[in-house]
Amino acid sequence: MNRPTLWMEPPPDPQTIESLNLRVAKLERINASLMAHVERTMDQQGGAYSLFQTAIMLEGRVRARTEELTALMHSLERSNEALQAAKEEAETANRSKTRFLAAASHDLLQPLNAARLSLSALTDLAPGPEAKAVARQVERGLETIEDLIKTLIDISKLDAGIVRPVVKPVRLTDLVAGIEASFRPFAERKELRLVTRCADLVVETDGLLLRRILQNLVSNAIRYTESGGVLIAARRRGGATGKLCRIDVVDTGRGIPEHERGLVFEEFYRGGHDSEEGGIGLGLGLSIVQRMASTLRHDIALYSRIGHGTRLSLTLPIAAQRPDAQVPLAPLATALTGARVLVIENDASTAEALQRLLRNWDAEVRVFRDLAGVVTALGTGMARPDVMVIDYHLDNGACGLDVVDYLRRNRGWVTPVILTTADHGADIAAQAQATGAELVHKPIKPAQLRSLLAYMLA
What we know:
This is histidine kinase. The structure is a single chain. Helix 1 (about 15-125) runs antiparallel to helix 2 (about 130-160), helix 2 packs across helix 5 (about 285-295) and helix 4 (about 205-225) runs antiparallel to helix 5. The model is unreliable at about 275-285 and about 325-335 (pLDDT under 50). Helix 8 links the parallel strand 10 and strand 11. The longest helix is centred in the first third of the chain and has 112 residues, at about 15-125. About 55% of the residues lie in helices and about 15% in strands. It has helices spanning about 15-125, 130-160, 170-190, 205-225, 285-295, 350-360, 370-380, 400-410, 425-435, 445-455, and strands spanning about 170, 195-200, 200-205, 230-235, 245-250, 300-305, 310-315, 340-345, 365-370, 385-390, 415-420, 440.
């Protein structure tokens, strides 16, 4: 039996085997390269993904912080709006307070004005020294109330920034002499010495505000001194070429304890002692002194020793030039006999008191409430007055200067005018100056009015 024949391929030659090995090696290199590329690609994708996650996380944080900052900004805006509203409300309230006090001052000072005028007339008629003493006591009470009202109004105006100092050269000797003359009777009633030592200096200040400051300082010094006296001294600091002046008000009172010295310039401070003079005191004097000194930029300092007294010092600049010399007025006659005085006053009590006072001075007086009354009197042949005393504020918002304007335009009467008002506003002072009227603030001081009338009639 024949066996099948098996076919067998001949073995590859060495050249073929080498070729195959080269191809395998090449494929392995290609595979390795591909694997490295895949790994690099995976690494890059992993880094990009990580960066992507980081970016998302940072974006979330930025968004959260932005939302927090936005909320904070909105909160600050609301707070600023609230603060602005509160500021505007406070400013409105302050302006309202100032307007109220300015308006109230007119109504408060009107009855005081009438009372002082009536009291002056009563003093002229009083038969004996006891009646005159009682009248003087009542007058002192009215003066105290008047001073308190004016002080409250001054504080309100200073706080509101309404007061604008008029700084110019002021001669100290004249100012201090006037204060000494005003307070000497007060000191003598308490058996105190009032001494002044004032060099011939001219300072740069507002004369009216400086006078008020020194009046308050001297008044306090006398009020709280039981024995000894009060000294008003003014001298140049830094020798003959010094540019500053120091004004001292020194008393021999009880002194101020050290723990109270920081409080003396606050409102309603009166210390631990009341005045023996019996006057009303609300402790506003030094408070307004500090406000006025601050407005003038004058430094004020306090030094005190218990049992020895107190010194209050005001430092202010020496003026570069001296004030213009004033020609003294010649002595004037005070007799008003037969003088025709036209009074325009809407307050009945003030009008009656003023009429009584003027008639006591032998003047012929015609009193009217408004312009309509004057026009009616002109129609009945009223003669031209020698002088007019006119209230600025009349009924229904009318102005007393309208009477002056009417008489000048329709009658050609350029009559001397005394304009009275309780309003210390600069606009009224400017109107009075433009009209040529003499401005007198209420309450009217009878002696001042009589002297002014005599001067205008001379």
